[in-house]
Design goal:
alpha+beta; Monooxygenase; Methylamine Dehydrogenase, Chain H; four-stranded antiparallel β-sheet; elongated; F-box-like_dom_sf
Length: 242
Amino acid sequence: AQQERQNDTMEFAGPSFLPDSILYQIFLSLEPADLLSAGLVCRRWYAVSRDDFLWKELFYRHYHVQRLIHRYPGTDSWYAEFQRLRDTIPCVEVQKLHEHTDQVLHISFSHAGDLCASCSKDCTVKIWNTKHPFTLLHSANMRPHHWSYTQFSQFNYDDTLLLVSGVFVGPHNSSAGEIAVFSIDGFNLLSRVRNKPYDVFGCWLNNAHLISGNLHRMGRITSCSVLWLNKAFQVSSRQTYI
């Protein structure tokens, strides 16, 4: 009986029986995403987590808005206002990058987020430091390799290599695709792999291997798609059929 009374006391003292005022103070210290997660525990926690005064405080704290600024006309609650500003927060231009001389076709970010790569119709691929302000770290011109333009890039999983896809111009102005692999450290060209057509961009399989592809025509109607497994560090184009 004593053990049962102790269990009842512990259950009564659990978080589900905290007064709403205490829950309010606890929830006030949470980040918005954590607060929404807490609201999934039970109906009572959900009700407290949607308290309008709570979201009003979170709104001013999260967005650093002066309290003289009131809620947007037409919004039903401070929770709705928080959502509205999160979904439609204005973008402010803080910097223009002029290093590309033609249309930028693709931008990719490293997994760590500290680098990004840009591809352009000016046939260059550039590596940028994303810490504000953006600064140019490396640039490679692919025209000496008979490329028409660069169109896609992707960092490998540990951000040590960059896959770059572009359009290769062959004899009689025939076009095909080609994938180039660069080292991030020093930005050296490590390998090149041909693929056809050029809208097969390729992708990383792991840190040292990438996948390319070919489309073979078999008569006027039938075609066959082939995937190739390539080593990122190969000197020449050496492919393994998948």
